[in-house]
Amino acid sequence: MNRIYLIAIILIQSITLFGQELSTSEKKYEFVNGKEKVTFEILTGNKYLEVNNQTQAKFKFENINPNNVSLAGKTIRILKGNSENELLIEMSPKKEDLEDGKLKIFLSYKSSNEFKNFELKIPVKI
Fold it and tell me: Which of 8, 15, 64, 104 falls 20 to 30 Å from 22 in CA-CA distance?
């Protein structure tokens, strides 16, 4: 019974956070939840990726333990993490991986015994 309760809580929390949009600045995408903050930046300086082109990007975490973070998405490869709460990744999206011209990345992390989830949709130039 406890397992069903836990799954229901995670599902409800996921639906709530997936509905939230990331704010964007000139070159960064940000997700803020209280004191917790996730920043995603494409290291080329663009706000988009290019099809069949390897591009490095990084996630930066504030008030989030990077050991409690999970990433999922097509063509994503984790290169390294560091002590500054950053995670360096590489992406090389293919046309068949896109949904409405965007590459989806799913990120989840555990905070205060709760799982927080969100979806990042990155524009891809074809």
Answer: 8
